[in-house]
Amino acid sequence: MSRKRFIRTGVVLGVGTVGIPLLAGCGDGRASRSPEAPASPYSPDREVAPGEAIASEEEVEPDSAVLYANTETGQPEVLVRLPDGEFVAYSAVCTHQGCTVAYRRQMQKLACPCHGGVFDPAEGAAVVSGPPRRPLPEVEIELRDGKVFRA
Ligand code: FES
Question: Whose CA is nearest to atom 1 of ligand 1?
């Protein structure tokens, strides 16, 4: 193997070896994260296109949530069923530095694992604590035929 080819092969293998754990740690690997932000351990478990069902009503118990990826934007979003049974949905991209947030049942809040940002899903995802300054953007949803659809 020539020296040039050896270096090229090493670079490809090196990127592959480093790239896989980085992508695994970044959720779906498509979120808009700041390079300074630590990786979020949360990743969407399904993909949903606008107009498609995110989940059936009975699939999401009160005081729980579904983390999914919007196929149009590639960004994570979260459908929350509040303790009173109401459904709300927000972008799951933290407004601080872009880590993926997740619903924490103990707090009944959306929490960011990177720098401790906390948002209240019952109050328009307003910032409760931590460094974020803006609420999570709301996502339009629609209840129809026992299912929750992404508008
Ligand atoms: Fe810093 Fe979420 S990325 S609190």
Answer: 115
Q: Which superfamily does 46-150 belong to?
A: Rieske [2Fe-2S] iron-sulphur domain (2.102.10.10)
d(CA 25, CA 23): 5
For residue 74, give the nearest of 91, 96, 56 by alpha carbon.
91
Q: Which atom of ligand 1 lies nearest, measured to the CA of 37?
A: 3
Ligand 1: atom nearest CA of 94 is 2
- Ligand 1 site, residue 31, Cβ cutoff 6 A: no
- d(C-alpha 53, C-alpha 150), whole Å: 6
pTM equals 0.77
Q: What pLDDT digit, counting tens, does each position of 92-148 carry?
A: 999 999 999 999 999 999 999 999 999 999 999 999 999 999 999 999 999 999 999
Residue ranges of the chain that CATH labels 2.102.10.10: 46-150
113 lines ligand 1 (CB under 6 A): no
